[in-house]
């Protein structure tokens, strides 16, 4: 499609008054295109096949390039930047191993619908297919995990291709786009034509929903006795939090927010039941399970939410709103499928609901009596430790309370991720960043780095596990050198905590290869405080509850360098509630060997 047909992407004009196009190398063309698209920050690591672009980027006064210590870190930093700012992130790497080191971050962005443009160098086009030094078919490798992939062999194609990649990444259902550019295309010259003609036949994301479908959804909402608004990360991607609030208050329906949607709806709002899923709150899990209508907004019925899909919400009709038609009815057949952007659809749905209920709104008192009873009987909490070590839930809760809702919180994957999702109060979108779909260990520190670059005036915490932290902690060097003062809280239980929890519950306590020797009463390899100091960060170790607040306050006051706090916590702490894998959500366990009781069962 031409740029005329895509009003959502308005390409700025190049410098006015030039009689003829300027001759630029391909590498200069890459940099100029990024500048004209409004890109101000790029994360990357140079190598032979992308050297021409790195040479050209030296001459840019508009783009800040941040040299990462590992390409995976650059990819996650671009993700964190994108999620925290609602902009398109950009990461760069060289060919071969540089490009393949980006694959994990590309998959992560794909699973969580994060808009990132990944630019890689490729060997000379004449050498492709010969197993040349550092050659890898990165387009072929990443095709299943990108929204689109481009291979550029001609200098003339560069402006239009990068502009198209930027447009694809940020429109419709956001996601990662790869642009692989051969070295000869970077080195050759051609007239730089701007704005380019962006031709994307077949790419027509639907944003405006069909009116009849919205009316049908509104009618179901007007008739439902046990409705639930099931809110996914798409609400945050479409910047629809305010619209969601208006819909929720108009309907009076309970709201649940998935792991990637935390902050889309304020935790303190009386209609919010918390997070659903394997480690969701009991009211959130059972509200979906017992409902008669689920209105899914930008969510995808992930297996961690549904449990055994065949047994999920057996009495519920489904309204499924998603910008990606491939998601609708993929897992749970929708009674009313609505393809469209969440923000637009929610506005229309609110208006249609108000029209449908002019004669009177449905009575939800009985439904709320049941849900409030669950809230009272099964509040989110934790059991104090018995080994004298810190309770990780307490540590994370205090980080949230002392930092406040204006902070940004990232997490790795595992127990600490679930505790951070549960025990920090999220009041605004873009304040919670984590690896939801892919479950990527090592996401937290580089994502926090990217978020801090995007939001320099906000306090940014990386809440990490001792296992996850050892995957990407080299990016502390990037933070120190580039004045990116993130705070890192290592929830150090000296083990791969979530794997250990499953071994405790399902493998008779056989702890095969989950001991990491980083915490209490171990050899402490590595010593996280010494490691932090070696990277130029402030290192603190906390072993007692009375030390927790002082350490967090010191971290909050320290903004001239990164801070790393080694919170030595109990290895026996577990994440509750929990729905064991493969069973009905009705069997949610509030604590070990304790499930809610059901009347008549």
Automatic annotation (TrEMBL):
Residue ranges occupied by any Thiamine pyrophosphate enzyme central domain in the UniProt entry: 216-348
InterPro entries for the chain: Acetolactate_synth_lsu (IPR012846), AHAS_TPP (IPR039368), DHS-like_NAD/FAD-binding_dom (IPR029035), THDP-binding (IPR029061), Thiamin_PyroP_enz_cen_dom (IPR012000), Thiamin_PyroP_enz_TPP-bd_dom (IPR012001), TPP-bd_CS (IPR000399), TPP_enz (IPR045229)
Pfam families: TPP_enzyme_C (PF02775), TPP_enzyme_M (PF00205), TPP_enzyme_N (PF02776)
Domain of life: Bacteria
Pathway the protein acts in: Amino-acid biosynthesis; L-isoleucine biosynthesis; L-isoleucine from 2-oxobutanoate: step 1/4; Amino-acid biosynthesis; L-valine biosynthesis; L-valine from pyruvate: step 1/4
Biased composition (Polar residues): 1-12
PANTHER family the record matches: ACETOLACTATE SYNTHASE CATALYTIC SUBUNIT, MITOCHONDRIAL, THIAMINE PYROPHOSPHATE ENZYMES
Species name: Leifsonia virtsii
Domain Thiamine pyrophosphate enzyme TPP-binding positions: 412-567
Occurrences of domain Thiamine pyrophosphate enzyme N-terminal TPP-binding (ranges): 25-139
Protein name stated in the entry: Acetolactate synthase
Record EC number: 2.2.1.6
Region (Disordered): 1-25
Family assignment from sequence similarity: Belongs to the TPP enzyme family.
Keyword terms: Amino-acid biosynthesis, Branched-chain amino acid biosynthesis, Magnesium, Metal-binding, Thiamine pyrophosphate, Transferase
Catalyzed chemical reaction(s): 2 pyruvate + H(+) = (2S)-2-acetolactate + CO2
Cofactor(s), names only, from the UniProt record: Mg(2+); thiamine diphosphate
Binding note for cofactor: Binds 1 Mg(2+) ion per subunit.
